TrEMBL record:
Family per similarity comment: Belongs to the glycosyl hydrolase 35 family.
EC numbers, comma separated: 3.2.1.23
Domain Beta-galactosidase 1-like first all-beta: residue ranges: 521-624
Occurrences of domain Glycoside hydrolase 35 catalytic (ranges): 11-314
Official protein name in the record: Beta-galactosidase
A molecular function (GO) term: beta-galactosidase activity
Keyword terms, alphabetized: Glycosidase, Hydrolase
Superkingdom of origin organism: Bacteria
The species this protein was found in: Cytobacillus citreus
Residue stretches making up the Beta-galactosidase galactose-binding domain: 768-826
Amino acid sequence: MITYDQKSWKINNERIFILSAAIHYFRLPKAEWSEVLDKAKAGGCNTIETYIPWNFHEMNEGEWDFSGDKDLAHFFELCADKGLYVIARPGPYICAEWDFGGIPWWLSTKKGIQYRTAEPIFLQYVDKYFDQVIPIIDEFQLTKNGTVIMVQVENEFQAFGKPDKQYMENLRDGMMARGIEVPFITCYGAVDGAVEFRNFWSHAKHAAEILDERFANQPKGVMEFWIGWFEHWGGNKANQKTPEQLERECYQLLSNGFSAINYYMYFGGTNFDHWGGRTGGEQIFSTTSYDYDVAIDEYLQPTRKYEVLKRFHSFTKWLEPVFTDAEQTGIELKLPSELKSQRVVSPHGEVIFIENTRQERVQSQVLLDGESVPFTIEANAVLPIVCHVNVGNSFSIATLTGQTTGFDTDKAVIYHEEGQRSFLKLQLNRKAEVHCPMPNRFEISEDDMVTFHLFHGSQPQTVQLSFEGGSSYSIEVVSRKSLEKAVPHLDKSSANHPLHWEAADEKLCFLSGNVKEADKPLDFSSFGQFSGYLGYESEFYAEETKDTTIVFTRIEDPVMVFCNDQYVGKLSMIGAAAIEVPVKKGKNTLTCLVQNMGRFNYSQAIGEPKGMSEAPALNGKYLSLREGWQVEGCGVTHHLSQIPKIEGRIGFLRSFMNHGYDRAILVGEGVSRVQVNGRSVKMLMETQTAWSRGYAVYGVADISDALKQGENVLDLDVQNTSSIRRFDLYLYNEQEQIKNWKTKSFAQIQEEKEWSAANQQNQQTVSPRWYKSSFDWKPENGLIVKIRLDVMSKGCFWINGQCLGRYWNIGPQEEYKIPASLLKEQNEIVIFDEEGLKPDQVVIHSYFPLIEK
């Protein structure tokens, strides 16, 4: 029922252009699924793609959940009911900026496990997962009761950097054995029997060349066409990809022969609860919002990109016979400098794509079929010129240089920038009378060829063709601006829900509850907890009252540090860190609070120990090693922010002095190979820069075995590296590590609390604190509900007992989604704030979207 050849996919032997919307059912409530699918279909998509996160359905070993918001079968059923095809991507690894890339946290407790390999321990759990999820996909295959047309094997596996042919074949065969009969696909993970896709945003020509060279007998497709991007805490707003750029890149896909596009994302959604992951780099922790700046925003509202794609889909659907049965050929067009051309030709017509790489509009002409054809193209844009396409039995398009959403049976729309002209030449198959209002112009030749010079002004105009026999055809000539629907904005007179707060202290007490004791702090998995907060406590003795440097020898999340019940500070550096702590003579108590900010979802670093996992050490030393580097044989010193160009195997050296320490931890971001005193260092945790991510390599290394007393020499391999953002050394003595730790869960909403009026709380000291308030809500208040947590520090919030995510007031996220489906007439909000800052400026608003006429 679904097959393919080199040109395109076929369903029931009919060629189809795949226009797929990436929509993750796990990033919005079940109550919103139907609406977002309807909007994707109305926007011209014919397919829905979704990952399936293993850990979402098996949060604890052996406890499977496919109910409520996890009802995968219902999502597939909705797609089938709405006539939408489905691309299923079950992993077992999915990336998706999702915690652990979809792998369950508890797998990291299995001794000797190696993720994403054919190693038996990992595969035995994958088999159990497949036993649960593949039968659901199987039931909804196109060949059975549903519309699943493709199933992906793993995800981006070649970018993982560890080739494992047996692993990929094992996954493919496991799916096949469980009933999958629709085509298998891969993206950056080729396996025999699967169609390979690419993932990218720009450079479609390069991707097409790779596919043509390596995968010649299959259609070209982009599985993740990144039309937006995700955001991370402390980063920039990710709205750099404009609607104009999106249109250009869409045309680049068509001009290079792609006949399957999956928009990643089309709707992004939200990382509710603690599901946001960690992508590359040292502190790339995903925000709660996964809006992605795409076609449908986090609140299910269409954006300008939605309108761009809707027009593009109409154009592509109109010329579907051309693009799905195309023979791509080069064409030598005489064009001005900085203009390029690409031609797609088929038995059903052809399209010539002109690309303008200039920073200004170009007005020019091109010789087509022996005639000089004028055209206008915007700066940094691609213009499709349509040639030799039949429109019913009445006429055919010889040449069109204006843009169009397609020619229907009785009408069409041609658009261009306001104030510009386009060219349309029609071959009439029947006699017709032409009605062409000013300022458009036309000529009819003796062979019934009609040439129009169309003007796209501020007011729309209609060209009418009245054929013999009474039929007619209308061509509306408009400006692009008139087609641009206003993006919905939010009603400024929205409902503001008053909040009256109660407060309760979170007491960092280890005398009761689920306290586990061990020689060193327990990371989240070792403790037996998926995410949330863990507290750590231990006692140590000091010989005198003083300030001492405590080195935290392995941390993978920010740490709040308290000593003797006094707040000392927050460690924001990851991997290892150091902090000055005031200690008193005699017994001291060190207490730490850590929020799991998400596990690596990408790279070879997946499976890192979250929270604290090694014992901190007293009287340590911290050195930043970014200054004072020398090219071997040269006296000039350099900073790692500006690394000189080094050729060949010349060393890039720096020394440091060690007096009395026997342990050393090196943390670098942007580091590849390192030598210490002539010995190569293996980074314990290495995030390798790969084909799609621009983040630097991040690693933690224990270099104690290579450490010497006195001078130590570091040698960095900095070829092809222009800067290194972090290179830190932490020195300490093993005998001064603090032992005998207690680990305990904190910030548990279900635990009883001593509530009192918020204004009675002591706000002078930094201390974690709870707040709660009730608020009223009715649908007539507005179905878009947002909360701002201004002036709060960092933590989590719950609505009616459901955690809606982390918050952190370091940007870029400032507003948080509250699903209307979660609300009742009377509601409760609960906030846990790490520093106990007052919620005086927290506001909840309800809105209705408005569109300005």
